Amino acid sequence: MSKYKIVMTGGGSAGHVMPNLALIPELTKRGFEIKYIGSNNGIEKDIIKNTSIPYYGISSGKLRRYFDVKNFSDPFKVIKGIFDAWSILTKEKPDVIFSKGGFVTVPVVMAASLKRIPVVSHESDMTPGLANKLASPFCDKLCVTFPESLKYIKSNKGVLTGTPIRQEIFQGSRLKGKNICAFTDNKPVLFIIGGSLGSKVINDAVRQSINDLLKKFNIVHICGKGNIDEKLRGTLGYIQFEYVSDDLPHLMAYADFIISRAGANTIFELLALRKPNILIPLSKRASRGDQVLNANSFKKAGYSVVLEEECLNKESLIKSLDDLRKTKDICIKNMDSSEMKNGVGKIIDVIMGVINK
């Protein structure tokens, strides 16, 4: 019989689900029975389906900072979600809730608070997202990834834990990555990833620069669903994928340099793997600016070269890569001395703390 029961929640993007998965092996080892609450049709449902974790879907509305006619109907979905979550929590009787963020978590956290079930939330980015801002009054503790985040959290609820990193990331094989790519020479490997959906601006800049880049690098390019460039199929030294799952740790192990967006989960994996990198954060025009803050924090710490999306073109990309090659050893040294390690242990200590208080 399990010692404790935890309900995990989080969804809307892979970034709100994968950190939950990173916690599961250690929670299981400590005797937790685990259940998951997500939305009826979100990406989290598909991801959790691939595990053995029982999944409950609830009604979920999106809460927007801008005008949209759905702003009038979605609050009713949130209210229905609270009743859905209340019913599930009444049935399951968990000892604790762990919330990773995304709008589906708001009704779960509210229902848990009404039922006096302790709640631990986690915020990956430097400033709390809207869902975590709405949920924070109902949380017992809010774990954060960046030291700068603590100033945004009231009532001494903030705890600096870092972000949980999946163990599979550390189990990549450079040899397996090499075999997957089958490059015919020994040039350094440049790995390019634009987030789970890919990035058109990064894809375009890479492809415009491809001839120059291939003089110096072999290139592994994760370009997103529907973004394969047929004209470049079979190009010597260049391999492209829409999406990679099981082989991702091997490709990252094989990489010498990485170009990436600046989502918190991804950049902390780069830090944990000590990979020299260029971060191209999603611009403030297309987001709330969290990736820009994340990237600048890593630049300040000496872990990354940062190239703003607005400045991204063929010339700036090649210059940034030249800068990265020159500072590679310094970047690795800075990452080696970082105290921002894998947050799994610290987060589980927080979870145990609210259970036993």
Any overview of this molecule?
- This protein is an alpha/beta fold and 357 residues long.
- It has two domains: 176 residues, Glycogen Phosphorylase B (Rossmann fold); 166 residues, Rossmann fold (3-Layer(aba) Sandwich), CATH 3.40.50.2000.
- Helices cover 41% and strands 16% of the residues.
- The protein has 13 helices and 13 strands.
- The longest helix has 23 residues.
- Its EC number is 2.4.1.227.
- Belongs to the glycosyltransferase 28 family. MurG subfamily.
- It is an enzyme of class 2 (transferase).
Feature tags:
Rossmann fold, alpha/beta, 13 helices, single chain, six-stranded parallel β-sheet, elongated, glycosyltransferase, 13 strands, 41% helix
CATH class of the largest domain: Alpha Beta
Radius of gyration: 21 Å
Residue fraction in strands: 15-25%
> Portion of residues in helices?
40-55%
| Number of discrete domains | 2
Main beta-sheet annotation: 7 strands, parallel
| Low-pLDDT windows of residues | none
- Tell me the number of strands: 13
The CATH homologous superfamily of the largest domain corresponds to Glycogen Phosphorylase B
* H and E string: EHEHEHEHEHEEHEHHEEHEHEHEHH
Distance between the termini: 22 Å
Q: Total number of helical segments?
A: 13
Strand line-up in the sheet with most strands: 3-2-1-4-5-6-7
Assign an overall shape: elongated
CATH topology of the largest domain: Rossmann fold
Structural class given helices, strands, pairing?
alpha/beta
Mean pLDDT value? 90
What CATH architecture of the largest domain would you give? 3-Layer(aba) Sandwich
